[in-house]
């Protein structure tokens, strides 16, 4: 799967940069905006755990199973959060877009929509993926609504699929967008972004 990474993807609002240890301080600032690590249904790192999370994602990158990005707002250079291509299947090829979080104050500004547009465009138009997957906790209604606004379809729910940090069992919603659906999804995202 040539071109999976490291690659920089840039739009009008945001730039997705290959994750690096140098992003640490900006990501700590981003995660403090909204204290996202306190949401029990997410796996967002606390400020004290950011270095370990960056190291974990870079190790997965080195193993070939993840391409992690830091998300930077272009208007002021501020880091907004992280996202990834994960569960990479280079043979098919197929990727999941996930392990995404953004500072709370960026919600509703179009930056997340543009980041998804960039990631989906690269996956379908450059990598040649026949499908792109998204997964989230059954209880993460905000994430589920955002995934559905993209135009992704619910493939199913994996019940008692994995354990969360507190040891409870998580039901995982699995969504996907097919290559044949990409033109309509792209048009919808472009329409949303024109409103910004």
UniProtKB/TrEMBL annotation:
Coiled-coil boundaries: none
Upper taxonomic lineage: Bacteria, Bacillati, Actinomycetota, Actinomycetes, Micrococcales
Keyword Cell cycle carried by entry: no
Primary enzyme class: transferase
Organism listed in the record: Arthrobacter halodurans
Listed name of the protein: GNAT family N-acetyltransferase
Residues in N-acetyltransferase domain copies: 15-153
Membrane-crossing residue ranges in chain numbering: none
Pfam families cross-referenced by the UniProt entry: Acetyltransf_3
Classification via SUPFAM superfamilies: Acyl-CoA N-acyltransferases (Nat)
Source domain of life: Bacteria
């Amino acid at each position: 799967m040539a071109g999976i990474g490291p690659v920089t993807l840039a739009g009008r609002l945001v730039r997705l940069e290959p994750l690096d240890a140098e992003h640490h301080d900006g990501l700590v600032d981003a995660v403090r905006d909204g204290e996202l690590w306190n949401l029990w249904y997410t796996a967002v790192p606390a400020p004290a755990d950011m270095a370990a999370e960056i190291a974990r994602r870079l190790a997965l990158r080195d193993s070939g199973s993840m391409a992690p990005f830091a998300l930077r707002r272009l208007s002021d250079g501020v880091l907004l959060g992280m996202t990834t291509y994960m569960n990479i299947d280079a043979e098919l090829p197929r990727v999941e877009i996930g392990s995404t979080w953004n500072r709370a104050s960026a919600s509703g500004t179009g930056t997340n929509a543009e980041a998804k547009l960039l990631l989906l465009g690269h996956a379908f138009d450059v990598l040649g993926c026949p499908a792109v997957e998204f997964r989230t906790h059954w209880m993460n209604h905000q994430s589920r609504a955002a995934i559905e606004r993209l135009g992704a379809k619910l493939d199913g729910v994996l019940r008692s699929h994995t354990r969360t940090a507190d040891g409870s069992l998580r039901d995982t919603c699995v969504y996907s967008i097919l290559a044949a659906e990409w033109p309509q999804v792209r048009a919808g995202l472009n329409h949303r972004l024109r409103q910004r």
